[in-house]
Design a protein that fits this description.
Shape: globular
Strand content: over 45%
Number of helices: 0
Radius of gyration: 16 Å
Structural class: mainly beta
Distance between the termini: 32 Å
Largest sheet: 8 strands, mixed
Strand order of the largest sheet: 1-3-5-7-9-11-13-14
Order of helices and strands: EEEEEEEEEEEEEE
Helix content: under 10%
């Protein structure tokens, strides 16, 4: 698979191009795997058996309203390893998405992806997965974001709701909406959510 290592991405967030792209509201992205039409069942190019390591993503001007992203993955990643990733000051950090049209015709199912030492700061949407299965996260830090960890279930061809996540060690701090989790058979260990208004919550167990 593809290997991307030891790079810094500075994302152009000085203008809003989201209206001219079929990305469900997302504009410029440092790393984009588009799949705008789910009826294209021959399959778009996606991250499969890939390694992304020692990467830093940041906005050029920190203008969150212009909808720029670090990673925007409409085409579902599979068996991809993300290690030592830092994202700062973008509207979208790590963002999985479904096809913009004909979503019921395609299979939206990110599977067996691994995240190790993944940090997002100062973003609107920090970390969002759609229909993810057997996702393994080790050390996740989400800080000063509007939305923290988001798992979304979307009806598509042959897919089911998110399931079988393992999250080991996470800190979600000072996020307005820290936690939106769908699906079943998840395991959470050493998860701390704090400094969100008066909320202080630690989870360690199953869902």
């Amino acid at each position: 698979g593809v290997q991307i290592r030891n790079l810094t991405f500075i994302v152009n967030d000085t203008s809003n191009v989201s209206g001219s792209l079929s990305r469900g509201g997302v504009g410029n992205a440092a790393l984009a795997m588009p799949w705008p039409n789910g009826a294209n069942t021959t399959g778009p190019w996606s991250l499969s058996d890939a390694t992304l390591e020692n990467l830093y993503f940041m906005g050029l001007g920190g203008t969150l309203g212009y909808q720029s992203a670090a990673m925007y993955l409409q085409a579902s990643p599979y068996n991809t390893h993300f290690s030592n990733v830092r994202i700062a000051n973008l509207a979208y950090g790590y963002q999985e998405h479904y096809p913009t049209t004909n979503v019921g015709s395609g299979v939206v199912s990110p599977d067996h992806n691994v995240f190790n030492n993944f940090a997002v700061t100062g973003c609107t949407h920090s970390f969002k997965s759609v229909n993810g299965h057997f996702t393994h996260i080790m050390s996740l830090q989400l800080h000063l974001c509007t939305y923290g960890l988001e798992m979304e279930a979307v009806a598509s061809s042959g897919s089911i709701q998110p399931s079988n996540w393992t999250l080991e060690g996470a800190q979600i701090e000072e996020c307005t909406n820290p936690w939106s989790v769908a699906g079943e058979r998840h395991e959470f260990h050493d998860l701390a959510i704090n400094n969100i208004a008066s909320l202080a919550l630690t989870l360690n167990g199953d869902q």
